[in-house]
Amino acid sequence: MGVIYKATNRKGVNARWHKDIDNLPCTDLRTINQLWLDYSGGKFGFSVQKKIYHRLGGTRHYNEEIWIAFGDAVGWCKGGSWLWHDHITYNTSAPVGHLPSFRFFFYFIVEVGGDGGFITSLLSREDL
């Protein structure tokens, strides 16, 4: 996610993060996604996550029930409880769509009590 931080001139996550995601250049987003697809044999990437998220009924607008179902589907959540980032699997044995993970997201959800709104923005981009 450091690459996305650089592409959006971000230093951290805040309430404006989803607006920055909306403004991330499509060439940067597609390049990052394609690298994930290429190096995982199509198992990981934003476009893989987008398919899972939309298959579950996800839209650009945050919906807690769908968001938790998505977390369960990609292995970020177990039985409605979000995992700490150090419990994320960073290899190809992870579930489809598990990566890329959003390390800061896990802190934001578990510690701060935020929601996945900025990721729903990313997974709803037309150019992905």
UniProtKB/TrEMBL annotation:
Domain GUN4-like: 10-102
GO cellular component, one term: outer membrane-bounded periplasmic space
A Pfam family of this chain: GUN4
Entry-linked InterPro entries: GUN4-like (IPR008629), GUN4-like_sf (IPR037215)
GO molecular function: tetrapyrrole binding
SUPFAM superfamilies assigned to the protein according to its UniProt record, in alphabetical order: GUN4-like
Protein name: GUN4-like domain-containing protein
Organism listed in the record: Crocosphaera watsonii WH 8502
